[in-house]
Amino acid sequence: MASVYIPAFRSARKILSVQHCCSCKAVRHVSFNKTFKFEDMDMELATPDQLKPKPPVSSLVFGKHFTDHMLTIDWCAAKGWANPRITPLQPLAIHPAAKVLHYALELFEGMKAYRGVDGRIRLFRPSLNMERMNATAQRVVLPNFDGAELTKCIKRLVAIDQEWVPHSTASSLYIRPTLIGTEPTLGVSASNNAVLYVILGPVGPYFASGFKPVSLLADPAYIRAWRGGCGFAKMGANYAPTVMVQKVAEKQDLQQVMWLYGEDHEITEVGTMNIFCFLTNEQGDRELVTPPLDGVILPGVTRRSILDLARQWGEFTVSERRLTMGEFVRASEQGRVIEMFGAGTACVVCPVERVRYMDRDIVIPTPDGDASLAHRILSTLSDIQYGRVEHPWSEPID
Description:
The protein is of the alpha+beta class and 398 residues long. It is built from seven helices and 22 strands.
């Protein structure tokens, strides 16, 4: 099969051909293996005329700008993985019958690279992203890979485009690894061909308003995921159906959706984030609660990090358990809710100030400064990510 031919880059707009590895003739030799290795990487860097101007940090918004290069790795069932390639950023050319376009055989990850106060660039707990990406690949029958090798490849890609990493501790470089099924065959079945690619883009704060509380719509009529489904997997099929519900919330002047599940209206996630509630429980103890990983919840890297930090602090009970709207409303009415916040790679931590549930608004305290657990978590994670403190979660790219 099929190798991918990459022509000489004389134009800023070229197409990266994604071909069917088991049926077409190779234009040049490409070796295939059970897994790919960083040491086998091929590189073709952008020419000076292809390099794009970098936007000022003050104008950065989430997901609008992209760097000069990308990483691509082809796979086919018959031969395995091809060598990793770094090339100038360019469109992918895939067949109109590619399974990703018809049956959503795809997945993605969200990571960031941070320029530290010492000038070094770091990734944050990338092994957890690799673990989750492989788990999602298994769920949609796409090929698994060696996460350590992909991390090495990503570090090289970031190093090449390192000037795109903002010189700011309020911004970062977003990393989007993606795996798509490209076999040009109609029919709901596993894909015999796939492409793993990684693109990068500088980002500012996920919410334009910055670290400000948000309001939520909690409507049991809408369900994001269910037990036995694929709510634990990070793939586009979980996100497309949420866009309409987001519009429903916006029409009510609310900013995000709190996703409920089941007859007792369990709280699961908020928007695209994991959710935390800090409260005084019925036994009189302070407790940080987040829903359990029971198949409905995405195993967020930020979620895991918050749990790890809170357990290390040992100052209050930390629980992964079901939290229903009934318990939450009762705690709110009794003045036991201390604060609530969402957490994710894109926003890190986002406070919640109000939840609309069953046509009533539940107002949530939003403490400031040292009184806020959300502020404390954000500050602690930022210190690790931007190198203000040395920590094993933070991995330099060099």
